[in-house]
Amino acid sequence: MSIQLTINKKKVSLDIDPNTPLLWTLRDHMSLKGTKYGCGIAQCGACTVWVNGEATRSCVLPLSAVANADITTIEGLSEKGDHPVQVAWDQLDVPQCGYCQAGQIMTAASLLKKKPKPSATEIVDGMSGNICRCGTYHRIQEAVKLASDLATKKKPSTTKKPA
Amino acid sequence: MKNTRRSFLQKTALATGAFCLGFDWFKAEGKAGAMVASAVEAGRFNAYLEISSLGKVILYSPNPEIGQGIKTAFPVVVAEELDVDWKDVEVRQANLDTQHFERQLTGGSGALKHSWDRLRKAGATARQMFIQAAAQTWKVDISTCKTAGGFVLGPAGQKASYGSLASLAATLTVPTEPTYKNRKDYKIIGKRTKGVDNANVVTGKPVFGLDIEKPGMVIAQIIRPPFGATLKSFDAADALKMPGIIDVLSFKNKVAIVGQSTWQVMQARAAVSCKYDGQNLESESTHKKWFDEGMAADKAQVQRKDGDFQMAMSKAAKVVEATYECPFISHSPMEPMNFFADVRADGSVLLAGPTQVPQSAQKAVATLLKVDEKKVEVELSKMGGGFGRRLNNDFALEAAELSSLIKKPVKVMWTREDDMMGGIYRPAVRYHFKAGLDASGNMIAFYLRGVGLNAGNATRQDNFPVGAIDNVLIESVNQVSSVTTGPWRAPITNFLGYAEQAFLDEVAEAGGKDPVQMRLDWLARAKNNPVGKITYEPDRFIEVIKQAAEKSQWKKKPGVSQGFSVYFSHLSYVAQVADAVMVNGKPKITHVTAVTDCGEVVNLSGAENQIKGAIIDGMGHAMFAKLRFNEGVAAPANFNSYRLIRGNEIPTIDAHFVDNGIAPTGLGEPALPPTGGSVANAIYAASKKRLYRQPFDI
Q1: CB spacing of A40 vs B646 below 8 angstroms
Q2: Which of B663, B208, B402, B325 is nearest to A97 (CA)?
Q3: Do A37 and B606 lie within an 8 Å CB cutoff?
Q4: What is the set of domains in chain B, with CATH numbers?
Q5: According to CATH, what is the number of the domain A3-76?
Q6: What's residue B259's pLDDT?
Q7: Nearest-CA distance from B215 to chain A in Å?
Q8: What is the value of ipTM here, to two decimals?
Q9: Nearest-CA residue of chain B relative to A128?
């Protein structure tokens, strides 16, 4: 029996093992490779997507659990790659190897949706579920702040220069 | 017709309507950057810069990108000397081309060090040819022409774009001694250049090895035996009945599960049972015994001997002694190992995926399959980190062997558990240090024995403070283990740096010296009257130490305890001061000041990333990384119990660079070795607790 859901605003119908984690559904069956495998046990956050707008670890979430749900992946975060979080990530030159960054960005964008102007502590706490093995944490935290400033259309209070 | 350089360039210009200058990034060792317009026969270049008539500049970057920023830094150097606007540059990753590259690898913090002169020459030579082409067109002397942002400017206000000059420039003789920019005129080098892959990364483009899809490709996972064990039998009856499963087969003690999709393979894998033969498989107790034996052994490899250590110790007024130990640890890059291979019926092979050493992969696979290297093509993907793990091509060999057995293109994917339990590891090492001090607290004798498990020489015998101490004895013992090991970011020094810098802190304390001044005194000695040969430059050491003391307000910060360290590796110098405070009775590292001399900083943004990343890496692994073996099996197996440092556990970091204009040296690794030391010494300053083992017990 096929499962219907919406992925990046497109309705899709999938006829695969309903136990398939959403992560592998996206990567193997939808050719959406932006969502990453890091640990498979919801510890690192590389696989973070939005399920009905909530940042969720897709590696432990079976397809059956997201029937009729609305999924947003990094590929669907913005049409032109210009979501304020994406802009901030580029502007502050956050990525080193880049592998974890899709998950970081999806987590950050979700955080800002709930709290458009998070405090420094809220940023640190909100982002600490995602591991970056390269150690780009400082710039991640600065970029969330910059994205918040960009999105709330005020003049960025952080300088463009990454610290 | 013989393909002369001139005819080649002409041909290329005619064929493409572009100025297409072949140059070799790596050949002509010693004669940096000799222009080699080669490979006409092959019809392609190793690496080149290409300028279209529209003025677009394409630079090919040959080295694999693991996150160290080389794909951005290399072209920055070429673009600077070429004198073009960075916004007009497009960077592309070159694939493996052994005919025209040397050192097309990423490791040892050596990429820029090896290529700096050649990159500059490549850019400067092309720039000069554009000037020549313009001068010829305008009938003016070349000395009256300048360049700016991809244009040649003439004495009477003439202006011609490189693009418009491309076809004429291509007919000119390649100059052998171009003029270089003065570094004060640099517009790109030393500034902040954003990563050329940022746009792909932030939009989730499929750029990594695990993202590779090829026609007809199947997926495989491999069950590997415990270290030291052999596969006796396996039962795949249930697995073979599962949907999407194509085959389950064994080779070289391993069992491969091959199927249509990742999830199907994972499910089937769980249904495969394996039986192993193995005696005396290694456990933590085995490793402890080997350390003890290595420390007690009469015979050790003497790595360095200055003066008479025993004699000096017998005269010492005070003796300081300490032992340090670290476990095997996993590299754990965020992208687990994976590789694609297609071994075809016609004997040709396509390899694709993340490796720091593509040429080794090509050679090893050619040897394994008994085919000509020329028939093995290697496509490079971006790598989700490496930290040394992808210097070993075990994953590429597995993929190639499996493809040859199943006669299909296959992507072998390691799970996180495979990655953490399947080797290669940072070798486990134990160090014993001894110091003899005279009545004034000066170190007159220095001893180190390093016992490593598959570590080779676990010492770096010629490094500071050797050269400043009269009586030195440095020995190593290597114990053979079945646990596979290899380079881990800053091999050996990633732990040796910590152990030594922590020990020297004890030496300073015992001698009643300030840790900074003690090192400055030693360096003055090493500079004026070194003991034996030294591999470091004392002046560069002195500079980073002085700047770090000043910028960190060494011992002048009220309410803050500080720890100092300094280390020389990969030809770069990094001094660090870590700040600690007590929070709820526990020491907390709040800030790290780092001063780095890595010569010319090519990309300030990338350089800061490397320094901060290496410090966070060094601190995280020193504090948390714990891996043990039981009967040949590593534990833990995943991030729930193998703890990596997170964003709420990092100190603030100030990264400073010495501005000296020396040709660039290593940057990806050198900030890591001193980190454990500065952190441990700050923790001691705050809590009076010395730390002798990693992970730290605090």
Answers
A1: no
A2: B208
A3: no
A4: 5-202 (3.30.365.10), 209-278+337-413 (3.30.365.10), 300-329+425-687 (3.30.365.10)
A5: 3.10.20.30
A6: 98
A7: 13
A8: 0.95
A9: B647
